[in-house]
Amino acid sequence: MKTTIEPFWWSLFGAGGTLAALFIPITLIINGLAIPLGWLDAPAYENVLQLARHPLARTYLFLLISLSFYHWAHRFRFTLYDGLQLKHLNLLIAVICYGGATVGTIAAGYTLINL
Protein backbone atom coordinates (compact mmCIF):
# COMPACT_ATOMS: atom_id res chain seq x y z
CA MET A 1 0.00 0.00 0.00
CA LYS A 2 1.39 3.38 -1.00
CA THR A 3 1.66 5.98 1.76
CA THR A 4 0.43 9.46 0.90
CA ILE A 5 0.00 12.77 2.71
CA GLU A 6 -3.24 13.52 0.88
CA PRO A 7 -5.36 13.09 4.06
CA PHE A 8 -3.27 15.83 5.71
CA TRP A 9 -4.13 18.30 2.92
CA TRP A 10 -7.79 17.28 3.02
CA SER A 11 -7.90 17.91 6.78
CA LEU A 12 -6.43 21.40 6.33
CA PHE A 13 -8.95 21.99 3.54
CA GLY A 14 -11.86 20.94 5.74
CA ALA A 15 -10.68 22.91 8.78
CA GLY A 16 -10.07 26.01 6.66
CA GLY A 17 -13.46 25.81 5.02
CA THR A 18 -15.22 25.35 8.34
CA LEU A 19 -13.46 28.24 10.06
CA ALA A 20 -13.88 30.49 7.04
CA ALA A 21 -17.59 29.72 6.79
CA LEU A 22 -18.17 30.36 10.49
CA PHE A 23 -16.00 33.40 11.23
CA ILE A 24 -15.25 35.39 8.06
CA PRO A 25 -18.88 36.51 7.53
CA ILE A 26 -19.22 38.00 11.02
CA THR A 27 -15.78 39.60 10.77
CA LEU A 28 -16.75 41.18 7.44
CA ILE A 29 -20.17 42.30 8.69
CA ILE A 30 -18.65 44.06 11.71
CA ASN A 31 -15.68 45.63 9.93
CA GLY A 32 -17.18 46.08 6.47
CA LEU A 33 -20.77 47.13 7.21
CA ALA A 34 -21.61 47.86 10.85
CA ILE A 35 -18.72 50.21 11.59
CA PRO A 36 -18.69 52.10 8.24
CA LEU A 37 -22.48 52.54 8.27
CA GLY A 38 -22.42 53.81 11.85
CA TRP A 39 -24.33 50.91 13.38
CA LEU A 40 -21.38 50.43 15.76
CA ASP A 41 -18.92 53.00 17.01
CA ALA A 42 -15.47 52.64 15.54
CA PRO A 43 -12.96 51.50 18.16
CA ALA A 44 -9.90 53.62 18.83
CA TYR A 45 -6.66 52.51 17.20
CA GLU A 46 -5.09 51.83 20.58
CA ASN A 47 -7.97 49.53 21.55
CA VAL A 48 -7.73 47.56 18.31
CA LEU A 49 -3.96 47.23 18.69
CA GLN A 50 -4.36 46.09 22.29
CA LEU A 51 -6.93 43.50 21.18
CA ALA A 52 -4.68 42.27 18.36
CA ARG A 53 -1.82 41.83 20.83
CA HIS A 54 -3.86 39.52 23.05
CA PRO A 55 -2.76 35.87 22.67
CA LEU A 56 -6.29 34.60 21.99
CA ALA A 57 -6.86 37.20 19.29
CA ARG A 58 -3.53 36.35 17.70
CA THR A 59 -4.40 32.66 17.76
CA TYR A 60 -7.82 33.38 16.21
CA LEU A 61 -6.32 35.53 13.45
CA PHE A 62 -3.51 33.07 12.76
CA LEU A 63 -5.83 30.10 12.48
CA LEU A 64 -8.34 32.00 10.38
CA ILE A 65 -5.70 33.29 7.97
CA SER A 66 -3.52 30.19 7.70
CA LEU A 67 -6.33 27.65 7.39
CA SER A 68 -8.06 29.86 4.82
CA PHE A 69 -4.83 29.84 2.80
CA TYR A 70 -4.72 26.04 2.86
CA HIS A 71 -8.41 25.82 1.99
CA TRP A 72 -7.78 28.04 -1.02
CA ALA A 73 -4.67 26.07 -2.03
CA HIS A 74 -6.48 22.74 -2.02
CA ARG A 75 -9.52 24.05 -3.85
CA PHE A 76 -7.39 25.85 -6.45
CA ARG A 77 -5.18 22.78 -6.94
CA PHE A 78 -8.13 20.56 -7.74
CA THR A 79 -9.73 23.24 -9.91
CA LEU A 80 -6.60 23.23 -12.06
CA TYR A 81 -6.18 19.46 -11.84
CA ASP A 82 -9.76 18.41 -12.58
CA GLY A 83 -11.38 21.50 -14.07
CA LEU A 84 -8.66 22.49 -16.52
CA GLN A 85 -7.40 18.90 -16.96
CA LEU A 86 -3.81 19.74 -16.03
CA LYS A 87 -3.17 16.27 -14.64
CA HIS A 88 0.31 16.13 -16.12
CA LEU A 89 1.34 19.12 -13.95
CA ASN A 90 -0.02 17.67 -10.69
CA LEU A 91 3.25 17.82 -8.72
CA LEU A 92 4.11 21.35 -9.91
CA ILE A 93 0.63 22.64 -9.14
CA ALA A 94 0.67 21.03 -5.68
CA VAL A 95 4.05 22.53 -4.84
CA ILE A 96 3.00 26.01 -6.00
CA CYS A 97 -0.39 25.95 -4.25
CA TYR A 98 0.71 24.48 -0.94
CA GLY A 99 3.98 26.39 -1.06
CA GLY A 100 2.05 29.62 -1.50
CA ALA A 101 -0.19 28.71 1.43
CA THR A 102 2.87 27.96 3.54
CA VAL A 103 4.52 31.27 2.62
CA GLY A 104 1.28 33.10 3.44
CA THR A 105 1.07 31.28 6.78
CA ILE A 106 4.65 32.20 7.65
CA ALA A 107 4.03 35.83 6.67
CA ALA A 108 0.87 35.94 8.79
CA GLY A 109 2.68 34.42 11.76
CA TYR A 110 5.59 36.84 11.41
CA THR A 111 3.23 39.81 11.18
CA LEU A 112 1.17 38.72 14.19
CA ILE A 113 4.27 38.07 16.30
CA ASN A 114 5.67 41.52 15.51
CA LEU A 115 2.51 43.47 16.39
Give a verbal description of the structure:
With 115 residues, the protein is mainly alpha-helical. It has a single domain (6-113), classed as Up-down Bundle (3 helical TM bundles of succinate and fumarate reductases). It contains 4 helices and no strands. The protein has helices at 6-34, 45-52, 55-83, 90-113. α1 crosses α3 and α3 (55-83) packs antiparallel against α4. The longest helix has 29 residues, at 6-34. The protein is elongated and about 55 Å long. The chain starts with 5 loop residues before the first helix and ends with a helix. The model has no long low-confidence stretch (mean pLDDT 89).
Layout of secondary structure:
Layout: H1 6-34, H2 45-52, H3 55-83, H4 90-113
State the end-to-end CA separation: 47 Å
Per CATH, the superfamily is: Fumarate reductase/succinate dehydrogenase, transmembrane subunit
CATH topology, by name, is: 3 helical TM bundles of succinate and fumarate reductases
Number of domains: 1
- How many DSSP helices? 4
Uncertain spans, ≥5 residues at pLDDT below 50?
Answer: none
Overall pLDDT level: 89
Helix/strand/pairing category: mainly alpha
Shape: elongated
Name of the CATH class: Mainly Alpha
Order of helices and strands: HHHH
The CATH architecture name reads Up-down Bundle
The largest β sheet comes out as: none
Tags for this entry?
115 residues, 78% helix, mainly alpha, 3 helical TM bundles of succinate and fumarate reductases
Care to give the gist of this entry?
This protein is mostly helical and 115 residues long. The chain has helices spanning 6-34, 45-52, 55-83, 90-113.
